[in-house]
């Protein structure tokens, strides 16, 4: 195969792989991700973090409205521990039945 035919074959193969793969999920609420995805640093960049995880925008805003960067780096860099935080757990219970691209204003709670 050459040129355009090879490109089309590669695109078709990529589409098949994407259709067969399970949809990616949010690292915090574990619901399927929608069209808008943000990347959260479990250890904030200001605290030396490099790794990222995909999250819904509303989940990302809730994390940062609830905890400071220092608290995230020190105590909540693991998503399992973060989910156990009382305010985050209450949010997760509320968001569980909402669609993937659901958006609502996030209250500042620090």
Layout of SSEs?
Layout (H helix, E strand, L loop, with lengths): L2 H18 L17 E3 L12 E3 L1 H10 L2 H7 L3 H6 L1 H10 L15
Antiparallel strand pairs: 1-2
Task: Give me some keywords for this one.
single chain, 110 residues, mainly alpha, two-stranded antiparallel ribbon, 5 helices, 2 strands, 5% strand
Low-confidence region ranges: none
Strand order of the largest sheet: 1-2
**For the CA atoms, what is the radius of gyration?**
18 Å
Helix content: 40-55%
So what's the overall shape? elongated
Number of strands: 2
Largest sheet: 2 strands, antiparallel
Quick structural gist:
The chain is mainly α and 110 residues long. It is built from five helices and two strands.
What can you see in these coordinates?
With 110 residues, this protein is mostly helical. It contains five helices and two strands, in the order αββαααα. It has helices spanning 3-20, 57-66, 69-75, 79-84, 86-95; strands spanning 38-40, 53-55. A two-stranded antiparallel sheet has the order 1-2. The longest helix is centred in the N-terminal third of the chain and has 18 residues, at 3-20. The N and C termini lie far apart (59 Å). The mean pLDDT is 87.
């Amino acid at each position: 195969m050459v040129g355009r035919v090879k490109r089309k074959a590669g695109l078709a193969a990529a589409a098949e792989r994407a259709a067969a793969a399970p949809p990616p999920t949010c690292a915090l609420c574990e619901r399927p991700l929608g069209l808008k995805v943000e990347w959260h640093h479990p250890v904030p960049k200001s605290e030396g973090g490099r790794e990222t995880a995909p999250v819904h925008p509303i989940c990302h805003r809730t994390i940062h409205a609830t905890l400071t960067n220092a608290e995230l780096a020190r105590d909540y860099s693991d998503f399992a521990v973060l989910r156990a935080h009382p305010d985050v757990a209450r949010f997760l219970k509320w968001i569980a039945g909402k669609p993937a691209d659901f958006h609502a204003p996030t209250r500042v709670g620090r």
